[in-house]
Write a structure and sequence with these properties.
Shape: globular
Structural class: mainly alpha
Order of helices and strands: HHHHHEEHHHHHHHHHH
Largest sheet: 2 strands, antiparallel
Number of strands: 2
Helix content: 55-70%
Number of helices: 15
Strand content: under 5%
Distance between the termini: 37 Å
Amino acid sequence: MENCIRMNNKMLAFITIDFPVLLLGLNFILYNAVGIEDYKNILRVIAFIFLLIGGFIRKKSITLLQLFSVLIIGIELLFQGTFALNILAAFLFAWCTTNNFKELSLRIFKVDLLLIIIVFILLTTGLLDFKTYISGVRLRGTLGFINPNAGALFFTSLVYLFILSREDISLWQIILSIIYSSVIYSITDSRTVFISACIFLLAIPLFKYSLFSYAFALLSKSIIIILWIGSAISILFINSFIGFDELLSFRISYFIELMNRADLINYLWGGTNFDNLTVDNFYYTFIFHYGIIFYCFMFYLVNKAINFCIKNRIFVVLDFLLSVCMMGLMESSFIRPELIFALLVWKIIFDPECLKALKTGA
């Protein structure tokens, strides 16, 4: 009987976690490597169905905050259309999946490893092109993806998932992860992804072995708060940063163009026209896609999750949030559920109670 129950639990986890996550990850490869977007929303909806099946089978209850999230997401669907499926996917994943964060991290790590093996096979067989090009004075490799930053995010995600899925994090695991991240950086020259990964990895010993781990936790919280509030305020004087435009790969020009397109309704409820405009900043993308009202609500949830991590001394997760929030200054891709390591970010934000079973400390 016990073996039967165990088998049923494994099958349930595969159907309602592994399979939908695999679909989302394959979706990322399709439109970021192969350039096929025709099936993007179809694959998302299929993933949603299997996630919902898992939620109903697990008889997941919904909190008042989560119910309020559903209400806001419903409003966003009216303003955003299919783009609101991004945040809907994040919420469904957070609500429908298991409350065991470590188990969830391990499952997504295995799916991510499988996806990386698939891409590696496609590269070695020539079905995906490994292209290099010169950007200014930088030689950048794409690792089979249309954009080298997308390739760097895809391959470096393994580092986050590897560390988060470990029961105990050793120094050699950190060193191995830094070497792996360095190899990806040497190919793609994706500075933001590499720096964010290094912040994540190098901060772990500070939390794990330092006498000032709580002080580092408070510092991390302060940095995250500054990033969220500062990004929202910076909209008012973005033109002042135009002198850094070339250094930041002309991102400032794109930010200014985005803000010129937005009106008051866009600022409050989102729906800004992003056509033919690349905005590599999570905070601006979120505000102008979903509106400042939803942004403020998400900031409240982020702060709540941070306080939960500090109170329970779950510092590796706090470190993870810090790294991703730092990455958000120059990347917006993790707003999409197809970047599957980012699903854990939304799990933490929407459902911090899933962290309860984790060990305290780093």
